[in-house]
Design brief:
By secondary structure, the protein is mostly helical. It has 5 helices and 2 strands. A two-stranded antiparallel ribbon has the order 1-2.
């Protein structure tokens, strides 16, 4: 599943926080914005707890 920019806001991640997360894990924030998101596998591969929370929340939002 693709994690989209609106999923960031749903878990309280601001653009500055998302930029910091991407920098920390070697991800391209501009590409994320340009493409409207990223595959969940890329975010989960970071092993970051925030990424897991983001993916879980996105799955929950899609099931409604």
């Amino acid at each position: 599943m693709k994690i989209e920019t609106q999923d960031l806001a749903a878990v309280g991640i601001c653009p500055k926080g998302a930029r910091t997360f991407c920098r920390r894990h070697g991800l391209d924030f501009r590409k994320f914005i340009k493409e409207g998101g990223a595959p969940e596998e890329i975010l989960l591969a970071t092993g970051d707890a925030m990424a897991r929370k983001l993916v879980e929340k996105a799955h929950g939002r899609r099931q409604r």
